[in-house]
C-alpha cells in the first residue's frame, strides 16, 4: 500500500554493529584485586563476595589501567623506589598512549583525547631524543622494551625567498665589517702593549 511504501522510505537503515576490538587490558585476570586493595593483609580473610566486588571483574577502565601500568613498571624498575627513571617514564607513557589509541579507534571524533595522545607521544619523543644523546645503550634497551622504532626528527628546512636571501647577505656583510673593526682595535691594543713592554725593558737597562 502507499502508506507502507512511505514508511519504508522514512525508515532508517540498520546500523552495523562494530566488532569488539582487542584491548591490551584483556590479559588481566578478572580475579586480580584492584591496586589499592592488592597488598592489604585483611584481604586474605574477607568473604568471596567482597573479593569479587574489589576485583577487576567489576572494576572500571581507569582502575584496570592502574594495575596494567603497575605490571609494566615492575618489569623495568631498577629499585623498589624507582619512579622517575627513563624506563619507568616510558612504560607509563606507553600504557596511556595505548589506551588512548584504543579509545580513538572507537570514537574517532574525540579531539580532546587525540590532543592528549599527541602530547604524550611528543613528550616520549623528546625523552628518547635526550636519552639517545646521553646514554645510547640505555636508549636501545628502552626502545626494545617499549617495542617502538625511534626515528630522529627531520632537520628544519626554511623556505628560501628573495627577501630572506637579501637579508642574510646583509647580515653577513655587517658581521664581516664588525670583525674588521674588532681586528683593528685588537691590533692597536697589541702594539700599545708591545710599546709599554719595550719602554719598561729600556728603563730596567
Automatic annotation (TrEMBL):
<feature type="region of interest" description="Disordered">
    <location>
        <begin position="1"/>
        <end position="29"/>
    </location>
</feature>
<dbReference type="Pfam" id="PF00312">
    <property type="entry name" value="Ribosomal_S15"/>
</dbReference>
<dbReference type="GO" id="GO:0003723">
    <property type="term" value="F:RNA binding"/>
</dbReference>
<protein>
    <recommendedName>
        <fullName>Small ribosomal subunit protein uS15m</fullName>
    </recommendedName>
</protein>
<dbReference type="GO" id="GO:0005763">
    <property type="term" value="C:mitochondrial small ribosomal subunit"/>
</dbReference>
<dbReference type="GO" id="GO:0003735">
    <property type="term" value="F:structural constituent of ribosome"/>
</dbReference>
<keyword id="KW-0496">Mitochondrion</keyword>
<dbReference type="GO" id="GO:0032543">
    <property type="term" value="P:mitochondrial translation"/>
</dbReference>
<comment type="similarity">
    <text>Belongs to the universal ribosomal protein uS15 family.</text>
</comment>
<keyword id="KW-0689">Ribosomal protein</keyword>
<keyword id="KW-0687">Ribonucleoprotein</keyword>
<dbReference type="InterPro" id="IPR005290">
    <property type="entry name" value="Ribosomal_uS15_bac-type"/>
</dbReference>
<feature type="compositionally biased region" description="Basic and acidic residues">
    <location>
        <begin position="20"/>
        <end position="29"/>
    </location>
</feature>
<dbReference type="InterPro" id="IPR009068">
    <property type="entry name" value="uS15_NS1_RNA-bd_sf"/>
</dbReference>
<keyword id="KW-0809">Transit peptide</keyword>
<dbReference type="InterPro" id="IPR000589">
    <property type="entry name" value="Ribosomal_uS15"/>
</dbReference>
<dbReference type="InterPro" id="IPR052137">
    <property type="entry name" value="uS15_ribosomal"/>
</dbReference>
